[in-house]
Amino acid sequence: MESQDYIPALPPSSVDAERSVxxxxxxxxxxxxxxxxxxxxEDFYTAEHRxxxxxxxxxxxxxxxxxxxxxxxxxSRRGTLDSVGGxxxxxxxxxxxxxxxxxxxxxxxxxxxxxxxxLIAASQTISRQCYAQxxxxxxxxxxxxxxxxxxxxxxxxxxxxxxxxxxxxxxFDRIEELSLLKGKLAGVPTGLYDLxxxxxxxxGGELVLVGARPAMGKTSMALGVTLFAAQKAHKCVAFFSxxxxxxxxxxxxxxxxxxxxxxxxxxxxxSDEEWVKLGDSINALSNCRIYIDDTSGLTPSQLRSRxxxxxxxxxxxxxxLDYLGLMGTDKRVENRQLxxxxxxxQLKEAYDRFNYACEPELIEASxxxxxxxxxKYDYLLRCVKERAGMSAxxxxxxxxxxNCVAASAMKGGGACRS
Length: 418
Prior knowledge:
seven-stranded mixed sheet; single chain
């Protein structure tokens, strides 16, 4: 007989675990609360169990008690009592469960099997989309990532409320870690000492927005932060440039590291001493963990995918984006103001998800956004108007509302922060 690499099989399921969950819910209100917080009717494999749990959920939402009588009455009202096995099946479920003390274990088994079935369904959807060859490859990749990532987040998002005791313990542990620093920066340093003193570095999950008029040095500031974090602090930095090609970014980094006027490099008027400086700087920069992406029209989902891959392969400490105004969006919106707001929201959501879904040692990722638009926090706008004469911009206001920190950069006058 010819061997087969793939043998069709029934989807992963545990009918006994599902029946135990239903029996525990019928007996114990605590078990019912835990089940409704964690499971949904779609997590049950058999149609009968899905219908029974849905009826229980309806009673729970209405604030009604859950027992053999009320669940049977709800199923009768729906006209599905006989199709699920009648009152006899409900009584059998109650007798089947060994003990309600193990309800959490039963729920975990049901959830694991449901996750496997969802992965199989997502894989089949991806396969059909690939075989059809009707959609652009970037759309197929984005849909595949979204399907898998939604399953990961659905599984990891069951526990959302934490007791204050647990929060305070983790907060105290963090305070102890900070006390060991003895005044040193807790986050990724920028090399701008006044900014580092105010922010204590760039921290995981933060979106930092810098706004300024054209030709005020936003990109130079971004490159300076990148160079300092990678070279002096030995951090892994991803630099996304939507405005300049990678070669130009490399040239600016090299000239900055070698302390050479870039105009002399472009004109070819380098002295022997400057050639030596360039050679030394190339050797030094080659050992830095700086990764450059110059894709134009980059979308938040593309940025998230590339950051996640780099994080898994090399680790990631800082993400620099130059600049938000040139980013594309994954969906069409009515106007540019809403588009900027949507982009900022997706960026913030992406790094919140990194913090939620990744191991603790991998989540020290901050975003340092360089935005040519004007930030419009109330205090910031007042500073800007008084010192730089900048006008309000609704698109920048929408972006600023999504950020943890906003700052304005200006020549000869320092910076304002909000």
